[in-house]
Write a structure and sequence with these properties.
Elements: E1 4-6, E2 9-10, E3 13-14, E4 17-20, H1 27-42, E5 49-53, E6 58-61, E7 77-79, E8 86-89, E9 93-99, H2 109-126, E10 132-134, E11 137-143, E12 149-160, E13 163-171, H3 204-221
Parallel strand pairs: 4-5, 6-7
Antiparallel strand pairs: 1-4, 2-3, 5-9, 6-8, 9-13, 10-11, 11-12, 12-13
Length: 234
């Protein structure tokens, strides 16, 4: 798992190992490394990990994926163990794999998902995006320049023996036409957007810095009382 390591810490709250992967990481390699690290964390042989990556263009299907929602196979398609349906990953999109030991963090999966959403929303807020949840619709949402509601981020997790896997995706400046090969997360009525599409000149490094700054608050929120939907890919 060759990568760039960085320390993300503010105040007294530190986060687990923080890795920023250079280049485009093939999805099978990421999945294998994530599953290996998940097992090692569960066995007490490795520390928790937050791993920030970019992938080459691909689609992934979760445990609720509907084949009718895969409209094109122009890119490789991979089955995953996470919840939810189809999503797209590709250059210009930050994917965050979050491997935490919930045995040490409250054993509350709903709280974990809720806190993960809050982390992404707060980080986008630091970049000038008013992001939010939308009642009845999964995902992280905002308004486009013409006032239309659109999806800018996704959450998709799996928990095995109280150790989390997978995580989130945020669109920085991906090719949004690539989402046309699927019905993103089963929601056809609303478009997908990105920081670039919103006219925000933020880089991947800017998003990484915002995530690092908000990470201590995210971790501090685990183990508390949260209200969230069941674990699913958004």
């Amino acid at each position: 798992m060759a990568s760039t390591k960085a320390t993300a810490q503010t105040g007294e709250a530190a986060i687990p190992e923080w890795r920023i992967e250079p280049g485009l990481l093939p999805y099978p390699q990421a999945l294998a490394a994530m599953e290996e690290r998940n097992r090692a964390i569960e066995a007490g042989e490795a520390e928790e990990l937050i791993w920030l990556v970019e992938h080459p263009p691909l689609y992934t299907g979760g445990t609720s994926a509907d084949p009718a929602e895969l409209l094109s196979q122009q890119f490789p398609v991979y089955d995953t163990g996470r919840g939810g349906r189809y999503t797209y990953h590709g250059p210009g999109q930050r994917v965050g794999y979050v491997l935490l030991d919930l045995r040490q963090r409250g054993r509350d999966v709903r709280c974990f998902v809720h806190a993960l959403e809050d982390w992404v929303i707060a980080s986008l807020g630091d970049l000038g995006v008013s992001a939010r949840r939308a009642e009845g619709r999964i995902g992280i949402w905002t308004d486009t320049l013409n006032g239309q509601e659109a999806k800018i981020g996704a959450i998709g997790v799996r928990v095995r023996r109280w150790v989390t896997m997978h995580g989130f995706a945020v669109n920085v400046n991906p090719d949004l036409t690539h989402f046309g090969g699927i019905v993103p997360c089963g929601i056809a009525e609303y478009p997908v957007t990105s920081l670039a599409d919103l006219g925000i000149a933020a880089t991947m490094a800017d998003l990484d810095a915002a995530l690092a700054a908000q990470a201590p608050r995210f971790l501090a929120g685990l183990g508390g009382t949260c209200q969230a939907a069941a674990v699913q890919e958004t």
